[in-house]
Amino acid sequence: MTEQEIPYDAIVRAEIAIEILNQARAIVTARVYELEATDPDAAEALRSRRRDLIALQQSITVADRESVESVIALWGPRVKDDARFWAEF
């Protein structure tokens, strides 16, 4: 039985999507640390949203190119612009 060949481009694009979500998680984590002392409820709400990002990140597979491209298109611009990130998050 032979393994299905996965194009190198698909692997790279999946890694890009994962890295974009890592950046999104870092932005949220930074805000959680800012809010912990002053607004614990808001910090906990952000932790929950961060867990959603982790679940999304863990669902990324090389075989699902449509989802990979969707993550790149949606989250890529968000992580480049802090104001946009929080407006759309």
Q: What is the count of distinct domains?
A: 1
Oligomer: single chain
- Distance between the amino and carboxyl termini: 45 Å
DSSP summary: helix tally: 4
Describe the sheet with the most strands: none
Could you give the order of the helices and strands? HHHH
Please state the structural category. Answer: mainly alpha
Mean pLDDT: 95
Portion in helices: over 70%
Fraction of residues in β-strands: under 5%
Poorly predicted sequence stretches spanning 5 or more consecutive residues: none
**What is the strand tally?**
0
- What integer value in Å does the Rg equal? 15 Å
- Structural shape: elongated
Give me the secondary-structure topology.
Blueprint: H1 8-35, H2 40-59, H3 65-80, H4 82-88
Helix pairs in contact: 1-2, 1-3, 3-4
Describe this structure in words.
There is one protein chain. The protein has helices at residues 8-35, 40-59, 65-80, 82-88. It is mainly α and 89 residues long. The radius of gyration is 15 Å and the shape is elongated. The relative contact order is 0.17.
Essential attributes:
elongated; 89 residues; mainly alpha
What's this, in brief?
The protein is mainly alpha-helical and 89 residues long. It is built from four helices and no strands.
